[in-house]
């Protein structure tokens, strides 16, 4: 390990503060972070703290939302031994001929992926927690999908290939490599039976308009952003209903360190995770601003093709009973997903939309319909417009896809929800149908200027009080009133 000895003074790492000090020292350094080293340290802390066998026997797990654990002591010798083993595995498993040359080749990337893959146990671990670190790889021969991609990137770094970087969608990971970083390669799986994709380009997924590959707009990481991806992947779960406070606290502090240095600016998922953690820790009140920043990041860097920034925000609004705002955030999520074609690889985002449409919305509609508040969302045409946008996006997502989405389990809540809005409320929405019921795949992306124009349009669409404008004729006042109704453009109407 180049310069490994300089880190010895930080050991033993036996507190969150020491982990933060270690990271902060790296962020101040001009050297690239050593991915394997940091993954081993973070993995050691997380795996020890979330080991149910090590949990405090006096803690009543059934009655706690989170528990506090004694922070482990990560020793220098343990880390060095594991690191040396990882380096030896890479160097012994990869032919020197493949390492020759300034830049990585597809054959090299595939070989490193094979070395990692062949060291794993036979089982897949898509839904198991705490298997994303090289610590898990070296101590238990287990990695999840993200962990494999991260280990391949770290393995290429160990072999001196600085051009290999992690690429992240919202539910998948691969690598980019080459002189300009324009080559792509699958190095992990997504679901079962996909191991034969290792080494192949991801271009086919992009051409298929797949959400799994975010239409060719992934987060392509720098070395420090790969460090951010490692931190963002930390999982504080002890049981399905209980988190370990120290793990969440460590993740929260590390993400803030990265945020303050600007390393999360182009990483919407990490910003959303930090927003959730900030709300969970109840230390500051920046959650709402972080969700807005995640959305801005997606719009600025990825042509607004990431869905989770909006579902992060919608979830926040829903938890705080800001239902109108939640409807709008979910509608924006629908606006994004309509750009894709649904496939069975989109299981995670399908579950997200299913929960929103078939659980959260019906629950809040039931709660709202039982009251008589003058501010009820059921009396707000803009909420109805948002609801239409949300469902129209899901319908457009299904259109042209080989796998259906909407079935009776979706249709019943949809009809029930729409019917709870009075006819006079529904009539106030100005529904505009897309001229051809379809959008061009290469439609021009939104820019910051177009976003500002969109906001102006939305402001103009609100009801205006023109009664005091004596200079307007009756016809002009009626025209202004019609034009100021909430407007929604539907794209699925031809097949509806």
UniProtKB/TrEMBL annotation:
It comes from the Eukaryota. GO terms for molecular function: chromatin binding; transcription cis-regulatory region binding; Y-form DNA binding. Residues 436-469 are annotated as: Disordered. Coiled coil: none annotated. This is Menin. The keyword Nucleus applies. Its main location: nucleus.
């Amino acid at each position: 390990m180049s310069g490994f000895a300089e880190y010895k003074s930080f050991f033993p790492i036996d507190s969150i503060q020491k982990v933060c000090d270690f990271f902060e020292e790296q962020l101040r350094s001009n050297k690239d972070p050593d991915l394997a080293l940091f993954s081993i340290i973070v993995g050691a802390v997380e795996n020890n703290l979330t080991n149910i066998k090590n949990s405090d026997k006096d803690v009543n797990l059934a009655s706690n939302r989170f528990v506090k654990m004694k922070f482990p002591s990560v020793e220098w010798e343990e880390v060095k031994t594991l690191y040396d083993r990882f380096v030896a595995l890479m160097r012994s498993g990869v032919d020197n001929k493949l390492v020759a040359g300034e830049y990585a080749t597809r054959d090299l990337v595939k070989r490193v992926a094979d070395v990692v893959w062949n060291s794993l146990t036979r089982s897949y671990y898509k839904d198991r927690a705490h298997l994303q670190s090289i610590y898990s790889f070296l101590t238990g021969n287990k990695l999840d999908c993200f962990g494999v991609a991260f280990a391949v990137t770290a393995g290429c770094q160990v072999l001196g290939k600085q051009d290999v970087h992690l690429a992240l969608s919202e539910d998948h990971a691969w690598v980019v490599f080459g002189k300009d970083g324009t080559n792509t390669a699958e190095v992990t799986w997504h679901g079962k039976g996909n191991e034969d994709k290792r080494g192949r380009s991801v271009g086919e997924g992009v051409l298929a308009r797949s959400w799994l590959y975010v239409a060719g707009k992934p987060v392509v990481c720098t070395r420090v952003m790969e460090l951010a991806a490692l931190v963002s992947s930390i999982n504080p779960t002890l049981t399905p209903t209980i988190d370990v406070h120290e793990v969440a606290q460590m993740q929260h502090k590390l993400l803030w360190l990265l945020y303050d240095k600007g390393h999360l600016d182009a990483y919407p998922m990490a910003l959303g995770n930090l927003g959730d953690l900030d709300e969970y820790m109840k230390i500051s009140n920046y959650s709402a601003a972080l969700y807005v920043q995640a959305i801005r990041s997606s719009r600025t860097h990825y042509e607004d093709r990431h869905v989770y920034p909006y579902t992060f925000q919608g979830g926040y609004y829903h938890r705080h009973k800001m239902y109108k705002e939640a409807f709008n955030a979910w509608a924006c999520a629908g606006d994004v997903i309509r750009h894709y074609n649904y496939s069975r690889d989109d299981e995670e985002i399908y579950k997200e939309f299913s929960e929103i449409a078939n659980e959260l919305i019906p629950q809040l509609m039931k709660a709202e319909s039982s009251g008589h508040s003058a501010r009820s969302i059921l009396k707000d045409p803009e909420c109805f417009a948002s609801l239409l946008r949300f469902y129209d996006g899901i319908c457009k997502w299904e259109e042209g896809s080989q796998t259906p989405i909407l079935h009776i389990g979706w249709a019943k809540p949809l009809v029930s929800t729409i019917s709870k809005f009075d006819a006079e409320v529904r009539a106030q929405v100005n529904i505009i149908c897309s001229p051809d019921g379809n959008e061009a795949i290469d439609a021009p992306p939104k820019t910051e200027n177009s976003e500002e124009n969109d906001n102006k349009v939305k402001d103009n669409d609100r009801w205006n009080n023109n009664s005091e404008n004596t200079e307007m004729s009756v016809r002009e006042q009626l025209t202004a009133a019609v034009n100021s109704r909430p407007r929604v453009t539907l794209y699925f109407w031809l097949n509806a």
